[in-house]
Amino acid sequence: MAASTAEARGDLDARQLARIRDLLLAANLPIQAPAEMDFAAFIRHMRRDKKVLEGKLRLVLPVGIGHAQVVADVSDDELLAVIESGRE
Question: Mean pLDDT over residues 35-42, rounded?
């Protein structure tokens, strides 16, 4: 979902997103949000993360294979869109 968020923001191209997804699948790791977990539960868990600083959610998003950036300006609407698109 981090890679999908980066792609939606224009920080990662579609080819790299596909490569990341392929690598995750090859490692038997999930690439979709659990169907039973609603957005409120995601946000509740994300707000407990060690990267939250002064109440502000920070995410580590890829900008290329092997490269990432920490961002603090991802809106709840952006997160919701990525979570929901991962369920299609």
Answer: 86
3-state DSSP call for residue 61?
Answer: strand
What is the rounded end-to-end Cα distance, in angstroms, of the chain? 13
Domain residues for 53? 2-85
pTM of the entire predicted model: 0.84
Output the furthest CA–CA distance in the chain (Å, rounded).
37
Q: What is the CATH classification number for the domain harbouring 27?
A: 1.20.1090.10
Dist CA 46 CA 40 (whole Å): 10
pLDDT at 87: 57
Structure tokens at 66: 């092997």
What pLDDT score does 46 carry?
Answer: 85
